[in-house]
Amino acid sequence: MERKFIWLALGILVILAFVTIALVLTQGSSYRGVLYEPPLPAFDFSLVGADGNTIALHDFRGQVILLYFGYTSCPDVCPTTMAEMKQAIDRLSPDNAEHVQVVFVSVDPKRDTPEKIQEYADHFNPLFIGLSGSQDELSKIWNDYGIYRLEVPGESALGYTVDHTARVTVIDQDGRMRVSFGFQTPVEDIVHDLQLILKRD
Fold first, then answer.
1. What whole-number distance in Å separates Cα of residue 140 and Cα of residue 36?
2. DSSP states of 167-193 as a string?
3. How far apart are CA 64 and CA 171, in angstroms?
4. pTM of the model
5. Does CATH place domain 33-198 in 3.40.30.10?
6. Separation CA 136–CA 134 (nearest Å)
7. Among 18, 31, 85, 188, which is most buried by a count of CB atoms within 10 Å?
8. pLDDT for 16-58, tens place per residue?
9. pLDDT tens by residue, 103-139
C-alpha cells in the first residue's frame, strides 16, 4: 500500500513538472507586441536616399526591418522611439543585430530632405536608414501603412508640429508584417519579439 502511494505521488510530481515546463515554454514564445494574424505582406516602396541612390524596402529582404514613421523636428515622441530602437538592437547579440535594419520614413517632407533625415538617423546609429521624398511619394506610403498625420500650427521656434501615428512595425525576413509596437513599449519587449522572429519561429 505504501509503495503504491509513493508511485502515485511520483506520478503526480512528474505530471506537474511537465505541465510547468509546457507553461514556461508557451509563455516564453508568445509575442508581447500587437500581432498581425495572419502575417500580412509588407507594402513595398522605394525612395531616393541621401546618397542619391534609390532605396527600396525589398532591398532588405532576408533581414528583420523595424519600420517607423516620424520627423526630424519632432520634440519628443520620435527621438524617444529612435532611442528605444537603438537600445533594443544594442541588447541583441552581434550575430542577431546585424540582421536587423531600422528604416525611418518622414511624415514631414516640407522640412525633411533625404540628407537631413539620414543625418538624424545617423545620430542614433549610423546603420539606420532615413528616407524622405515628395508629398506625393510619401502620401501613398503613409496610406498603405495606415499612418495618420496632421500638421499643427505652432508659435515655437520649431514652427508647426506634426501629429502622427507613432508605431513601429516589424517586418520579417520574408517581407511580412509580423508585429507592431506602440509608443513607449518597454525595450525588453521589443528585444523579446525580435529574438523570436530572428529564430524564424
1. 21
2. -EEEE-TTSEEEEEE-TT--HHHHHHH
3. 6
4. 0.84
5. yes
6. 5
7. 85
8. 333 333 333 334 459 999 999 999 999 999 999 999 999 999 9
9. 999 999 999 999 999 999 999 999 999 999 999 999 9
